[in-house]
């Protein structure tokens, strides 16, 4: 029967993916720590429903309220996400590596009504609202509260507030809706990996970012979410877990992929159960891909996305990585793949007008995965995706077959170890030092991290590098601080007084 033209879209809550698997595959493993299963599919859904009930009855949270998750990877991270969505709440996963000042700003900006924090981070947390320590008796009591039915949500309702690093020095909250997450889930299963019930995803990368987003396509197919005992990335631990789980996948930054490859190359690990290593967050050099293929086999897949289009702009699946018979295989291997399901990708000029095939310009994307805007920032929303096309700030070109090759970044972002670092944040921290007169922060190629942060400093008198390092650590996250300091008499500038960072990169790149 045809729907009326003015029919409202059907209600949709992304937590339905957990409920669906609880019904279809109740006894399959859903959550595990190391080699030990902690929850079945049915148990996970039951705890999510109880948690939703506890948050409503004991904390008076209502649909649309934000819950911040300041947690390192742990098995109950999945339950907290599922429980928030079950109750119609908005999850705000926050990078646990941020500086306390940065964490405090996000908690205030998001208007979080409740914060859940790992015990080791609790002493440094500055929150005006109630705080629950993950794994505490209070947290466990919430997960044993009276269960409530799945709260209806519409496709456009907010589900995940994803804070991205900001060029202005403040992160922006990309408003990921239930519909965005469903589009991402469908695109993953169609274009990245076909998951089967009983498969495994290993969360060795932060669940506040890409690995956490990939909870959903695996929940949709009743796969098991495994968190390493260490709670983080350890190449040897990962290789030890591979033979313990069926059809295992993991998401990793290129830095982590290289470490896995090196660890595997020095021994004789059993890789029979390793289905795919999905990399993203930064490009991989062809030489690194060649080494990875030689050691791991053709098990790599690439995704290109942003918080504004979560994990969902283009993909280069493992079959494309392995297609050596194609006459342009090497060229395609160096690309970011083709548009994912439901997505359109084009190259635009500075005014956003489409450029022809092969032309270089800004990568633009639109489709059901692109977020509607930024939290409490209408100006940035209008500037970045106001006409429906997401302006990524990345420079690239499309070939005649639709393969996207990224060549540069118009936004001055440094990607080190898969983490975005905006130079202005680091520059502003250094410029508060009384001896620093000028500073320019750039990224230089690094074989381990992809790029390393280098601060070019004009100072009088010249402070010790250790003093500058300590100064940064007191103001910004550890992973953002410079890996090297270069002291100069003056910074190269244009006739208009603009610092010529390209010249600095060329000079220091040649010197290194």
Polypeptide structure, described:
The mean pLDDT is 93. The chain has a nine-stranded mixed beta sheet, sandwiched between helices. A four-stranded parallel beta sheet has the order 4-3-5-6, with helices on both faces. It has 512 residues and is α/β, with parallel strands linked by helices. The chain starts with 15 loop residues before the first helix and ends with a helix. Helices cover 31% and strands 26% of the residues. The chain contains 17 helices and 24 strands. It has two domains: 16-404, 3-Layer(aba) Sandwich (Rossmann fold); 414-511, ANL, C-terminal domain (GMP Synthetase, Chain A, domain 3). A hairpin with a 3-residue loop joins strand 22 and strand 23. Helix 9 (235-241) crosses helix 10.
CATH first level of the largest domain: Alpha Beta
Question: Distance N terminus to C terminus?
Answer: 68 Å
Tally of helical runs: 17
Strand order of the largest sheet: 2-1-10-9-11-12-13-14-15
Q: Structural class of the secondary structure composition? A: alpha/beta
Mind telling me which CATH architecture of the largest domain this is?
Answer: 3-Layer(aba) Sandwich
* Biggest sheet overview: 9 strands, mixed
CATH topology of the largest domain: Rossmann fold
Number of domains: 2
Overall radius of gyration: 23 Å
Average pLDDT works out at 93
User: What is the CATH homology-level superfamily of the largest domain?
Assistant: ANL, N-terminal domain
Helix content: 25-40%
Shape descriptor reads: globular
Poorly predicted regions are: none
Number of strands: 24
Portion of residues in beta strands equals 25-35%
């Amino acid at each position: 029967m045809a729907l009326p033209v003015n029919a409202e879209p059907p209600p949709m809550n992304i937590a339905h993916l957990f409920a669906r698997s609880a019904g279809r595959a109740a006894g399959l493993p859903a959550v595990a720590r190391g080699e030990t299963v902690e929850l079945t599919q049915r148990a996970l859904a039951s705890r999510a429903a109880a948690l939703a009930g506890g948050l409503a009855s004991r904390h008076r949270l209502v649909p649309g309220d934000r819950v911040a998750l300041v947690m390192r990877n742990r098995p109950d991270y999945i339950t907290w996400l599922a429980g928030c969505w079950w109750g119609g709440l908005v999850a705000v996963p926050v990078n646990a590596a941020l500086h306390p000042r940065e964490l405090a700003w996000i908690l205030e900006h998001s208007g979080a009504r409740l914060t859940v924090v790992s015990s080791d981070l609790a002493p440094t947390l500055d929150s005006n609202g109630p705080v629950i320590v993950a794994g505490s008796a209070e947290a466990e009591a919430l997960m044993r509260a009276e269960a409530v039915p799945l709260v209806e949500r519409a496709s456009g309702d907010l589900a995940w507030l994803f804070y991205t690093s900001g060029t202005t020095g403040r992160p922006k909250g990309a408003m990921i809706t239930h519909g965005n997450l469903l589009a991402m889930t469908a695109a993953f299963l169609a274009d990245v990996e076909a998951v089967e019930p009983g498969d495994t995803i290993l969360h060795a990368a932060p669940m506040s970012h890409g690995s956490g987003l990939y909870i959903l396509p695996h929940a949709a197919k009743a796969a098991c979410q495994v968190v390493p005992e260490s709670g983080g990335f350890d190449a040897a631990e990962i290789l030890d877990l591979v033979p313990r789980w069926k059809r295992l996948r993991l998401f990793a930054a290129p830095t982590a992929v290289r470490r896995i490859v090196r660890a595997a190359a020095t021994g004789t690990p059993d890789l029979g159960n390793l289905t795919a290593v999905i990399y993203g967050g930064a490009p991989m050099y062809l030489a690194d891909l060649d080494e990875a293929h030689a050691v791991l086999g053709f098990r790599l897949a690439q995704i290109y996305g942003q918080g504004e289009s979560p994990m969902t702009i283009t993909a280069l699946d493992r079959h494309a990585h392995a297609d050596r018979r194609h006459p342009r295989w090497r060229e395609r291997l160096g690309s970011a793949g083709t548009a994912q399901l439901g997505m359109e990708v084009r190259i635009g000029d500075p005014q956003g007008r489409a450029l022809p095939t092969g032309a270089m310009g800004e990568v633009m994307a639109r489709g059901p995965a692109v977020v509607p805007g930024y939290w409490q920032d209408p100006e940035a929303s209008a500037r970045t995706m106001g006409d429906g096309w997401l302006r990524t700030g990345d420079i690239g070109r499309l070939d005649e077959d639709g393969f996207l090759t990224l060549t540069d970044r118009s936004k001055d972002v440094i990607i080190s170890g898969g983490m975005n670092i905006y130079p202005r944040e680091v520059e502003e921290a250094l410029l508060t030092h009384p001896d620093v007169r000028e500073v320019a922060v750039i990224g230089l190629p690094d074989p381990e991290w992809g790029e390393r942060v280098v601060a070019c400093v004009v100072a009088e008198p010249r402070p010790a590098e250790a003093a500058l390092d300590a100064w940064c650590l007191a103001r910004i996250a550890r992973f953002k601080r410079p890996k090297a300091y270069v002291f100069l008499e003056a910074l190269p500038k244009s006739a208009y007084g603009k610092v010529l960072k390209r010249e600095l990169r060329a000079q220091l790149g040649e010197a290194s």
